[in-house]
Amino acid sequence: MIDFFRQAALFVLTALAEIIGCYLPWLVLKQAKPAWLLIPALMSLALFAWLLTLHPAAAGRTYAAYGGIYIAVALAWLRVIDGVRLTSWDIGGACIALVGMAIIVVQPQA
Hints:
This protein is mostly helical. The chain has one domain (2-106). It has helices at residues 2-31, 38-53, 59-80, 88-106. α1 (2-31) packs antiparallel against α2 and α1 crosses α3 (59-80). The two termini are 18 Å apart.
């Protein structure tokens, strides 16, 4: 069970790195923020790619499981950073995605 939570925490860090790496260019392009924000964005995306390599499963399985965590983290970002109130549909969808992620991560090893 500890391994599951360790993997989930690594997925959360991976998702944050990806979201930050995409959010900063969005700020530059959509809100006319300074172009120097592209430097930490590139660093964050490089961190994202490196973090993906730390997951123990095959790449395709890692990406599939990561998707569930990404959805939940993106919605948390929407609430905390963007200040948008989540709907019950948002929360329900995230829960379904997290169940899917858990099924993929805890499957018996072949």
